[in-house]
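sorry for the late reply, my laptop died twice this morning and i had to redo everyting from scratch. anyway the thing you sent over, i finally got around to it. pasting the sequence first so we're on the same page, its 298 residues, then the predicted structure underneath. double check i copied it right bc i was rushing
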Amino acid sequence: MKVLVLEGGTSAEREVSLRSAKAVKAALVKAGHEVVAYDTKQGLDSLSFFTDEVDVTFPVLHGTEGEDGVVQAELEMLGMPFVGADAQVSALCFDKVAFKERIAEFDAPTPKWVAVTRDTVEQQDLLNRPFVLKPAKGGSSVNTHIVRDLTTHTLDFDQIFSTDGEMLLEELIVGDEITVAVLGDQALPVVEIIPPEGAEFDYENKYNGATQELCPPENVASDIQVAAQQLAEQIHTELGVRHLSRTDFMIKDGELWTLELNTIPGLTDESLYPKAARAANISMKELVDKLVCAAASD
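ok and here's the structure:
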């Protein structure tokens, strides 16, 4: 097939997108597909030129105008089949507040949270315990702040909210972090995430190789892994996600806590989704081939 790979974009996660797209394009070529690439930084109006030229579109975009439903809505309007969640579901999952509200409808466990702005953040009781403050819409841990010690944190709220007007303030769950990739409607093996000692799983440590990503996990009981896979599949299905997703969880005292779901997870060589696929004996070439074939047959 002739596959249009959408890459780059204008969000803070542009560089990650370009790295993911590079890996996807190479794998598609290995799988025998013809690849055309387009950087959406050039605008979405030009997508119409590809309508009759390609069989499937593969958005490899992260952040705003990538995962938030904007590109997906344009592709739907043009009648172009594409990999990943549709526009409505993409927008829902990208908005952490809407996502939290939606999973509460079927009692998926999640840490206590509240949506905040600069005017309301300092009034919240959640600031009196270890917390996470992250953009309501965004990914790759950009502008995410984890506070474990309340006596030493020096967060500059003015600076933080100058970048993102609405943030999610969430109780910090201290425990083991895992992620579960879903391909089609089946969960892949669980990946355990262990940040460097004394550090966080932040933007830098996600991509510099300092974080341990263990698959199979070494510190997570098999029954908890199965429960996490089942919960990831349930969330994926209940929200109407298609083709692929990756849901992040914390484990504390044997209980799972849902953090968020990514509809276009990272696909770089260091990314968690390809690592989970490899653990299921699915190569990157096979993975991208399965995804474009699923999109073409929808």
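The first helix runs from residue 14 to 30.
thats about all i looked at so far, will dig more tmrw
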